[in-house]
Amino acid sequence: MSGVTGADRIKSRHDFQQFVESYTLLISQFSGFCSAATSGSYNSDISKHDFGDIDLIVHINSSKTKRDLKKDLQLFFHALPDSVIVPFTSAKYAGKRSYNSGEIVSVRYFDTILGYSVQIDNIIALDAAEADFKQRFLDFPATKQGLILGLVKTATVETDPVVLFARIGIDIAVLDPNGLTCSNDLYVEHNQEYEFNLSSNELQLRKVTYMYSTYIQVSKDVVWRSRNMQDLAALLYQYNLNADFDTLLLQATANVHKSRSFKRIPGVFTSMVSVKSGEVGTNKGAEKLAALDKVNKFFTECT
């Protein structure tokens, strides 16, 4: 069974495509629908022939907030027959017909040609740029996503921010004319620094304020954002983002030097990469466990 819905696994790439085609005809009836595009391991691993669920980047044009739009999408699904949008059978969510979490609305969809139902995760995007960025980011395997996020989080620790700003084309004096407060003076209450952050939505530059002499965050203000993957490549210019996870980790041996990064990258990675209940005993679960071990071992040995 798969994920929150308890649905069947997708049995083949042929079935996967059939589900996507018939489901797209269904969801295209939702007001504002623009497109639906596959993402994840179906795209990134052509050797894979069965899947736990289907990840779709669903671009919907709407003036509503994403939160309200997702609620409307749930109502759309709930108005359809149980024979199409099937009630969940997972122990935790039995009887539910949709699951709303973060960027995603999950449903269990039945295809009449194939004769079985699968979980479809609708990953919502409100414009074409967001849809493209999401697809490119989510096409990275989960382990690669986690490592890249850790490298992004520590980019300004490892490299002078001025160098990074120049490479990306960020004019920080215009974006943040007040600059940073950073002092060893005991009478200064806070310290600040610039930090990049990556999600499936966008790449951000934040000005982070810490409690004095700690890394306890008091506030974080976004001063710049981008949905251009070229900006991510410019930020992580020391890395080949087209490389696989093991190669990226090897490249980190030459580029990560600060003790703060040695602690932070494994922390970020562990928060991003976990073995879900449906992945226990599977190749995907084993790959995640191996990656967790490699990251923790590498950065522990560096300290």
Keywords:
8 strands; 3-stranded antiparallel beta sheet; 5-stranded mixed beta sheet; alpha+beta; Beta Polymerase, domain 2; single chain; 2 domains; 41% helix
Can you give a write-up of this model?
The protein is α+β, with helices and mostly antiparallel strands and 303 residues long. It has two domains: 13-134, 2-Layer Sandwich (Beta Polymerase, domain 2), CATH 3.30.460; 140-302, no CATH class. Helices cover 41% and strands 21% of the residues. The protein has twelve helices and eight strands. The chain has helices spanning 13-27, 41-44, 66-78, 128-138, 142-153, 155-158, 161-168, 172-175, 229-235, 245-255, 259-272, 283-302; strands spanning 33-39, 54-60, 99-101, 104-111, 116-125, 190-198, 203-211, 217-226. The chain has a five-stranded mixed sheet with strand order 1-2-5-4-3, with helices on both faces. The chain has a three-stranded antiparallel sheet with strand order 6-7-8. A hairpin with a 2-residue loop joins strand 3 (99-101) and strand 4. Helix 11 (259-272) packs antiparallel against helix 12 (283-302). It is globular. The two termini are 41 Å apart. Residues 184-188 have low confidence and may be disordered.
Short description:
The protein is an alpha+beta fold and about 300 residues long. It is about 40% helix and about 20% strand.
The counted number of beta strands is 8
Estimated share of beta-strand residues: 15-25%
Main sheet summary: 5 strands, mixed
Radius of gyration: 21 Å
What value does the average pLDDT take? 91
Bin the helical content: 40-55%
Adjacency order of strands in the biggest sheet:
1-2-5-4-3
Number of domains: 2
